Amino acid sequence: MNKTRSDCFIKARRVISGGVNSPVRAWRAVGGNPVFVDRAQGSKIYDVSGKEYIDYVLSWGPMILGHAPAKVTAAICNTAKKGTSFGAPTQAETQMAKLITEAIPSIQLVRLTSSGTEATMTAIRLARGFTGRNMIAKFDGCYHGHSDSLLIKAGSGVATLGIPDSPGVPKELARLTLSLPYNDISALEKAIDTHGSNLAAIIVEPVAGNMGVVPPQKGFLEKLRELTAKNGILLIFDEVITGFRFTFGGYQNLIGIKPDLTCLGKIIGGGMPVGAIGGKKEIMEKLAPAGDIYQAGTLSGNPLAMSAGLTTLNIIKSKINSFALLDKKTERLCSEMEKLFSEKGIPVCINRCGSMFTIFFQQGPVYDLKTAKKSDTALFARFFQAMLKKGVWLAPSQFESVFISFAHTNADIDQTIDACSKTLKNL
Ligand code: HOZ
């Protein structure tokens, strides 16, 4: 087998549209051919030629314990021996739902899906069905998966590829979605003044992670909660990325805000395909079969996903103190890199929340999509490629987050700082 990247990509493009099964994997924003992965262990990922990288993508967030943790792998193998899908309920699904309701107080009932996109799509339908209203609002640069109603001024691959609104989303449907600037309380107030009585829901990433990392400014989420409650609008927190990333629970646990509905994914599947929607009983009970708002899935609550997810969540629960360590490690990495950039005279703005961060190649501040877009994406691409050559795999887009896992060691952080220092000498 020829193991060069270009060869793999050429072969893939012959049979897979665009050569990838999710757009950002094609590395259009940074150029060159994407690395094809062979395997991963702990904080390291290995390409098909055997080259080792420190992985800061972590499958875009799920692998908080690092890759292939022994207990999770064993749980998946043991479960697989008993069958991999039944299309019938299992006790593992109840255990997962129970763990989620224990971890996140705003969630009284859960419905499991196979992806975050399904969870957010279901949340929107549920909100429309529950309120009897059709309009929804989201925020520019937030990404909630690729369902029609949510693919308006979206982040992630859509921002990376500069696609403002996807063809194929009917205008009639797009018109029902308002997209507002993130962190802008007066735009929010205005939108609610004008459309409040028609809005079924407002969906938000409580820490935006798909236009690069953009934390909420003081008072933004609080105001959002206050105004939605006052106007009968459901508040949906998309915690697909942030759920279990900062604590045993959601970002909402840290700020003490209770949304009406929460979407989860990534970490709760321990690296297997999963999603979940949860929230207030009176809303969740509207889902079929208890209610008449339809949602279904052959692989929903899949046994392999449940075993990987349950094992992961139980490890996180037993290692709750590790989050402080993770935060410290990430803080050290960010501040050392910040120092190096400043010594070199390259302006960067590093936005960080716990173990996720983005180095924006600009002065900053970055507080919404408009400011994120001021970044020097060409310089970012050169930085990315140079770091990759030195064995450090960052997210291949300026508008994504870098993630750190429990498995990243101080030696990994040192090696990354060293790679950054060497990279900046020639950037
Ligand atoms: N939407 C993900 C990044 N925010 C990318 C998923 C993938 O390509 O695996």
User: What is the arithmetic mean of pLDDT?
Assistant: 96
List the bound ligands: (4S)-4,5-diaminopentanoic acid
Corresponding CATH architecture of the largest domain: 3-Layer(aba) Sandwich
The CATH class label of the largest domain is Alpha Beta
Query: How large is the count of helical segments?
Result: 15
Structural class designation: alpha/beta
Distance between the termini: 35 Å
Q: Tell me how many strands there are.
A: 14
CATH superfamily of the largest domain: Type I PLP-dependent aspartate aminotransferase-like (Major domain)
Shape: globular
Q: Which keywords apply here?
A:
binds (4S)-4,5-diaminopentanoic acid, 7-stranded mixed sheet, Aspartate Aminotransferase, domain 2, 427 residues, 15% strand, Aspartate Aminotransferase, domain 1, alpha/beta
